[in-house]
């Protein structure tokens, strides 16, 4: 008897600056999934947040022009229907696991995780609250600091408090060289390295294009960028470490380095670090995974200073799966192939769903409501 294939729904795209990155990651995953084990449906969120059905999404996978496919798909949609944006999920039946590959807004911030929870289906990755906190660099750093996980010093600038954080004041506290970044963006979108007031002011304004909460962080002198992949649920494992050497003259590992032209980037896989430092970074990664209540997968990014002191940078709870993405490469180094990694992520999603199904919610009937008759006035007197 042939075993029933698990039906996996792969969601990608989204209305974030990482839309095209998500498409590339999803295509790689789709190609790598063992079709003998899994039936795979694909759904693409458009740049306006409308979810295309499986058939239209496959057309885009097969190379048709996205804008033309989207225009055809939405022309007859009744958007007065409150479920219009997600109505195409009903195009396929009996989904066993949802696999979100949506980087940035909607995908990593708890939005689609809330949808999956309402649908009462397993999904790959962290839960609603964990995703939201992990996507917010400010909230992440607050939790890490509370639990003693070393990270860089910073301030948060908003349109309301901007006047309180001029460059001169921030530089006096954090140093003349600073990193300015939106608190809730990924893939290095909107990040600037600044060294003076003019650059600082421009970077803050650019950051407000992406988020109304902008992080200003101290810069680590001559840092090495080191990455660690984490895999698991309540019990998790850390991969071997990798490092990134960016082209000379580039200030940091930016969007172009990551996804457009990595020809000048040198990946050290694995990176040769002192054993003590390696173990410290791996343990910090596992500690952060636990503190942030992550599930399934995460890539932890670190900066290591000239004295071999590691600083936690940020967590990516739905890391890229493109051909040059470090998350799957680090697990390949650790003995887990791309296809095996997908198998493990799917099983972790099912395990987490089954664990949560064991939780109980007790419902107590209130009975007839009884309301007091007296009312105490402001002067202390009582009325009946």
What does this structure look like?
The chain is an alpha+beta fold and 384 residues long. The chain has 3 domains: 6-123, 3-Layer(aba) Sandwich (Rossmann fold); 153-218, ATP-grasp fold, A domain (Dna Ligase, domain 1), CATH 3.30.1490.20; 224-353, ATP-grasp fold, B domain (D-amino Acid Aminotransferase, Chain A, domain 1, 2-Layer Sandwich), CATH 3.30.470.20. It is built from 12 helices and 14 strands. Strand 8 (224-232) and strand 9 (236-245) form a beta hairpin. The protein starts with 5 loop residues before the first strand and ends with a strand.
Short overview:
It is built from twelve helices and 14 strands. With 384 residues, the chain is α+β, with helices and mostly antiparallel strands. It folds into three domains: 118 residues, Rossmann fold (3-Layer(aba) Sandwich), CATH 3.40.50.20; 66 residues, Dna Ligase, domain 1 (2-Layer Sandwich); 130 residues, D-amino Acid Aminotransferase, Chain A, domain 1, CATH 3.30.470.
Write the layout of secondary structure elements.
Layout lengths: L5 E8 L5 H14 L5 E8 L8 H8 L4 H9 L22 E5 L9 H9 L8 H8 L1 H10 L7 E4 L9 H8 L3 E5 L9 E3 L2 H11 L6 E5 L5 E9 L3 E10 L9 H6 L5 E3 L6 H17 L4 E9 L5 E7 L9 H8 L4 H19 L18 E2 L5 E2 L1
Parallel strand pairs: 1-2, 1-3
Antiparallel strand pairs: 4-7, 5-6, 5-7, 8-9, 8-11, 9-10, 11-12, 13-14
């Amino acid at each position: 008897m042939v075993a029933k294939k698990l039906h996996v729904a792969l969601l990608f795209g989204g209305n974030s600056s990482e839309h095209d990155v998500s498409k590339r990651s999803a295509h790689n995953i789709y190609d790598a999934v063992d079709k003998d084990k899994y039936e795979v449906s694909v759904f693409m969120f458009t740049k306006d947040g409308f979810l295309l059905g499986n058939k239209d999404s496959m057309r885009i996978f097969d190379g048709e022009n996205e804008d033309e496919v989207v225009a055809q798909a939405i022309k007859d949609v009744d958007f007065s229907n409150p479920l219009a944006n997600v109505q195409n999920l009903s195009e396929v039946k009996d989904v066993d696991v949802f696999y979100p590959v949506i980087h940035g807004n909607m995908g990593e911030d708890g939005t689609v995780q809330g949808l999956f929870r309402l649908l009462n289906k397993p999904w790959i990755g962290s839960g609603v609250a964990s995703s939201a906190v992990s996507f917010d660099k400010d909230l992440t750093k607050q939790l890490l600091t509370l639990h003693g996980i070393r990270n860089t010093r910073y301030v948060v600038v908003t349109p309301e408090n901007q006047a309180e954080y001029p460059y001169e004041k921030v530089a006096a506290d954090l140093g003349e060289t600073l990193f300015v970044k939106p608190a809730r963006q990924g893939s290095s979108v909107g990040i600037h390295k600044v060294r003076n007031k003019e650059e600082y002011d421009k970077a803050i304004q650019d950051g407000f294009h992406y988020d109304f909460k902008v992080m200003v962080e101290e810069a680590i002198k001559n840092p090495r960028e080191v990455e660690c992949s984490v895999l698991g649920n309540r019990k998790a494992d850390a991969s071997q470490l990798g490092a990134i050497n960016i082209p000379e003259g580039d200030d940091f590992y930016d969007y172009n380095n990551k996804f457009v032209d990595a020809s000048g980037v040198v990946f050290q896989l694995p990176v040769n670090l002192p054993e003590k430092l390696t173990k410290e970074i791996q343990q910090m990664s596992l500690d952060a995974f636990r503190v942030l209540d992550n599930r399934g997968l995460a890539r932890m990014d670190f900066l290591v200073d000239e004295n071999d002191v590691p600083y936690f940078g940020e967590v990516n709870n739905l890391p890229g799966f493109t051909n040059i993405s470090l998350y799957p490469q680090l697990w390949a180094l650790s003995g887990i192939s791309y296809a095996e990694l997908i198998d493990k992520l799917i099983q972790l999603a099912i395990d987490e769903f089954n664990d949560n199904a064991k939780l109980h919610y007790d419902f107590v009937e209130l009975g007839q409501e009884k309301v007091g008759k007296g009312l105490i006035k402001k002067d202390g007197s009582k009325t009946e």
